[in-house]
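Side project, low priority. Logging it here so it doesn't get lost.
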Amino acid sequence: MMKLNWILALLLLLPLSLKAEPKVVLVSIDGVRWQEVFAGADPKLHQQPQWVKTPELIRAFQPSQPELLMPFLHNTVMRQGITVGDRSQGSAINVSNPYQISYPGYQELLAGFSDPAIHSNNKIANPNVTVLEWLNQQPQLQHKVAAFGSWDLFPYILNTKRSGLTVNAGFMPEQGKLSEKQQYLNQLQAKTPSPFASVRLDVFTQEFALEHMRLHKPKLLYIALGEADDFAHLGQYDQYLAAIHRSDQFIADLWQELQNDPYYRDQTTLLISTDHGRGDATQWRSHGKSAAVPGYKGPVPQIAGSEQIWLAAMGPEIPAAGLIRTTGSWQQGQMAATLAAALGFDYQAVQPKAAQAFDFSASAQLAVSDTDHSMQLQAASSL
C-alpha cells in the first residue's frame, strides 16, 4: 500500500515538473503588412482587376474586418495575449536595419541587431551567431532547437555548417530515420511544383515542423512561412491575402497541437512577427531601399513603409492585454532577447549588441480598449 501511495504521489507531481520547463515557438510570416493584419483587406486593392484575378478567392475578406482574414490572431491571440503594430492606434514597431529586405530582417530578428555586412539576399553564410545557435549550445537546450523555413536561404541565415542547428528549409527533404509521415512528405514535396524558384509551399514547412515537434519535442521551434511575400512581389493581391489567411490557419493548428500535448500545454510562449513591411497601396508589391540593390529585384529604389512591422505574442507569462500602444521605439531586434528570456536565458549578457527584451508586462497598462479599436475600424470603413 505504501509503495502504491508513492507511485500516486509521483504521478500527481509529474504535471508540476513539466510546467517548470518553458518552451517557445516563433513563427514569422514573410513580408506581411501591418495594414492587412489590423485592418483586413486593403479597400484600394481588393477589388482591383489589375491585382485580383480570382475575386472569389478573397470574397470572404473585407476591409475593416481583420478577424475574417486572420481569425486566430484576432479571436485567440489578441484576447489571450498582446499585439503590437497597428499604427492607426498609436502602436508601432520597426526594423532598425536600413535595407528592409528579408536576409537583413531575419538577421535582426534572430541575432538581435542589424549588421551592415548583411545587406542583400545573397546566399552568404551568416558570420553572426543567432540566438537560436547560442541557445542550442546551452546544456538544457542542446539538440532541442529546430528551424523550418519555406525560403531556401535559411541554412545560410542560421549558418548550419557552423551552428549544427537542425534546419529544414527550401526544398530540402527530411533526412535520417524517418517516420511514415516524413517519408510521405518527402515524396509529396518532390512531386509538387512551387510557383517560386526559392520558396516551397508553406504547407510543407508547416507539416515538416509539426511532425518534428511530435517526434523530437524541441524546446525552441522556429517556423518561417514565405508564400505571402512572394505572391505580393508577383502583384497577386488575391493570392497574397489567401496566403495570409492560410498562415493564420497554420498557426491555429500549431497552437491546437501544442495544447493537446502535455509537454507543451500551458508552458509554451508563442511569438509571431514578420521580417519587413511593404509599401502603401501604390507600392504594395515592393519593399526595401536602394542600398539593398545587390541580390534584390525591387523596381523602386526606396519604398516608404518597408520599416513598419508588427508582432503578436501569448503564453504563460504574457498578459492578456490585446493591442497595446507603444511608447518609445520598439524594434525588431528585441525579439531575440525576448525569445531567450522566455526560456530563462539572458541573451544580452553574451551579445551586448542585441536589443533588450520586450517588457510585455509593463506595456499591458497601455492596452487599447476594444471600443477604441472598433470605432477606428468603423471610421476607416466609411472613408
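Brief comment: The longest helix spans residues 237-260.
Revisit when time allows.
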